[in-house]
Amino acid sequence: MIYCQTEWLLIRDMEDADISELSGEAENSEEAVRYFRKQAGHIQSGMCTGLIAFCQGQMAGYVYLYYRCKWGGLGNQGFPGIVDLYVPEKFRRKGIGDRLMDIAERIALDHGDKVYLDVGLNSTFGSAHRLYARRGYIPDGRGCYYEEKVCGVDAPCINSDELTLCLVKELVKHQAQRQQEERSMRQGYPSREAAEKILQEAESCNPGPWGAHSRCVAECAEKIATACGDMDVEKACVLGLLHDIGRKFGARHLGHVYDGWKYMEWLGYPEAGRICLTHSFACHSLELYIGKFDILPEQEAEVRETLERLEYDDYDRLIQLCDAIGTAEGVAAMEDRMQDVRRRYGNYPEEKWKRNLALREYFEERMGRDLYSLLGEQERTRQGTRPKG
Ligand SMILES: [Fe+2]
């Protein structure tokens, strides 16, 4: 099964043919081959799922999820356990470990109300410690383990991979939270709280001013939707928070549009995915895209075909407008934003320029008031005082 497929990342079930690729990373490849063969046997006998990630064709990580794990702190108690998460050094800090964990935890939820793992205490596990803490794993409270047994006070031990801590994550949510999630799936976008979490997690993968820009867009969208009187205010805010979520996967142009669209669809939020796609095409035309076409030809065809099929609604138009005025530092004059893009990219299509102004007029008419007075900003077109996000 394929769990995630973007231009730069593929995550799927492990296959026997992956063994040479998996063991290629190891210092002792013979021993590694034996280990991965044994794991392949466990997959075949239905004890676990093995997930493998590829980044542009290269093996970029793996993890095993045992449904009733036998090893470590909560071993043999019927709980699912995450075993041997690994991401090669050169692929770290790209969110691959998180994606593998997202999928493993989702599978674990079918097998129990909590999931656990054992992690070594030495410094080679430093980035894993941070990853697990961020994801809500807490120690089981029994102190450290040495060679799979609780290590007593003052007991001799060596700070090898055998000195570990057992970390546990509660997977079962409160009923209200579950209902909220189901509602989010039905409506095609997450709650505001969940959207903020998705954004925060994405920013940790690729920090930059885009996070503050997204919050500014969300705030503008919320105010405009409120002033319109007949729009869903929470939806407007959530779509604003997530419109640039494709930046989680790196600084790309059309790539961030495509990745955001696919990522949201993968999480089960097609309405948010749609906005990741439409926010960059106020003119409804791929040809007028100003940045680089840094996606594969077949992905470009997919974007073109989907755009042609979509009829824009007021949420598409709202986020297009807010994207044209929201910066990382706050609201800016639309003309300033467009001039800035023209300066950075060398051009700004006339049609797009006019379209943005028309969007502003459209919403001003709908609200019955001036956009900038609503947003509590003086229009700064002529002063041009705002830095750009
Ligand atoms: Fe944006």
Briefly characterize the structure.
With 389 residues, this protein is an alpha+beta fold.
The mean pLDDT is: 90
Number of DSSP strand runs: 10
Radius of gyration: 24 Å
**Terminal-residue CA separation:** 39 Å
Strand content: 5-15%
User: In percent, how helical is the residue content?
Assistant: 40-55%
Number of helices: 15
Instruction: Using the coordinates shown, work out and report the CATH topology of the largest domain.
Output: Hypothetical protein af1432
Biggest sheet details: 10 strands, mixed
The CATH C-level name of the largest domain is Mainly Alpha
List the uncertain runs.
Answer: 380-389
Assign the structural class, choosing from mainly alpha, mainly beta, alpha/beta, alpha+beta, or little secondary structure. Answer: alpha+beta
Order of helices and strands: EEHHEEEHEHEEEEHHHHHHHHHHH
Q: What is the total number of structural domains?
A: 2
Small molecules bound: fe (ii) ion
Principal-axis shape: elongated
CATH architecture descriptor name of the largest domain: Orthogonal Bundle
Describe the structure in your own words.
By secondary structure, the protein is of the alpha+beta class. The protein has two domains: 2-172, 3-Layer(aba) Sandwich (Aminopeptidase), CATH 3.40.630.30; 188-374, Hypothetical protein af1432 (Orthogonal Bundle). 46% of the residues lie in helices and 14% in strands. Strands 1, 2, 3, 4, 5, 6, 7, 8, 9 and 10 form a ten-stranded mixed beta sheet that branches. Strand 1 (2-5) and strand 2 (9-13) form a beta hairpin. Helix 7 (210-228) packs antiparallel against helix 8 (233-242) and helix 12 (314-323) crosses helix 14 (350-367). It starts with a strand and ends in a 15-residue tail after the last helix. 35% of the residues are buried. Mean pLDDT is 90; it is low at 380-389. Fe (ii) ion binds next to helix 7.
